[in-house]
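Quick one before lunch.
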Amino acid sequence: MQSSKDAIYSQPQQVSDFRFDDTVAEVFPDMIQRSVPGYNTIVDAIGQLAGRYATNNSNIYDLGCSLGAVSLAAAKYVVADNCSIIAIDNSEAMAQRCARHVKAYKANTPIKVICDDLQNIDIENASIVVMNFTLQFIEPALRDQIIQTIYDGLAPGGIFILSEKLRHVSEQGNELLIDLHHEFKRRNGYSELEISQKRESIENILRAETFEAHQTRLRNAGFDDVVLWFQCFNFASIVAIKN
Ligand SMILES: C[S@@+](CC[C@H](N)C(=O)[O-])C[C@H]1O[C@@H](n2cnc3c(N)ncnc32)[C@H](O)[C@@H]1O
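Model of the S-adenosylmethionine complex:
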């Protein structure tokens, strides 16, 4: 995907809460690649997992799809017959651009883009549900119910892929991972000002939990296996399996 360079926090400013608006959508591919360690690897591997777990006549959900990277990766790898990919985002700026990208890409597996809150979507007959760095932006009190709905909508043998920024259990470990992440951003060309203003803007809306908290929630919802398949610094991806 073509993308303009992210310079949103390059000048001193009165920092307000981060929003997935037009300004962010315009630079999103550059922003996420320079901010999330392993983002491209994660997206491609999710595509591969989709290829492996998609079953004939089933649905694949991409919740919080942004510009559709996960949906497009899934479409590239899925070979099962008669699957549908459903991509949902409640940001109009994201969903509109996502629909344009999807239209430009001739996928064998159809991708339907919906602009709505993911909580309004019925998850049914799913072989795969993905939340790639989305749950972290949802009110913590709502998370148990969302995960339960996903579990209930998955067919046996289905998987839920959850990527999140994590908080480490110990303060010392957490500080170390945050430092390593900031160094990753510096090496990708972000200045100290950009790093600190972005942090200030996002800290009220991105509520990170520990791996253990995610594991407990997934287990409580009924998932039989919870596999941490990727981690770099404080960014991780989990696959939860429903047998
Ligand atoms: C970090 S981005 C996700 C990145 C994307 N999954 C990818 O792989 O490129 C988080 C997205 O979740 C969306 N989002 C946040 N809360 C949502 C909700 N309640 N319903 C639907 N989308 C939501 C945001 O608009 C944003 O586009």
